[in-house]
Amino acid sequence: MINGQSDHNGELKSEMNIVPMIDVLLVLLIVFMIASPQISSSVEVNLPQTSIEQKQVEQNQSSVVVVTLDKTDGIFLTNTALGILDEPKDPKHLVLELAAIKNVQPESEVFLKADKETSYKKVMFGLELIKSSGFEDVNLVSEVRE
């Protein structure tokens, strides 16, 4: 045969060549490894400014859980280790999901981001939801005043 491989009986072999497929998969893996740290929150939140130095929120760390409250009273959850990226949640489902994360990743740190126009009552409600899910420590996120 000119273009096909044949065995000793003259029949064509119909084997799949998987080397190009593996090459493509490895390239995709490298692209996602490079791009995943670049993924940031898509929820627009104007954080309040303070003069207090605080921990930086690294949303791409596996042990970080971010609860975001926007100015339209939306609640969003982010945990990149479990593939949760800015998913909108109602209060009941937020508590259930945080409790599940606490069981799977007990060493997780929780950060609460709230828009500066969010009322104090809503921020305290967010804290209450997080605490009721089993997390004791909650980090409040703000921007450093320049």
UniProtKB/TrEMBL annotation:
Its main location: membrane. InterPro entries: ExbD. Keywords: Cell membrane, Membrane, Protein transport, Transmembrane, Transmembrane helix, Transport. GO terms for biological process: protein transport. The keyword Methyltransferase does not apply. It is a single-pass membrane protein; Single-pass type II membrane protein. GO terms for molecular function: transmembrane transporter activity. GO terms for cellular component: plasma membrane. It is found in: Cell membrane. Belongs to the ExbD/TolR family. This is Biopolymer transporter ExbD. It comes from Photobacterium galatheae.
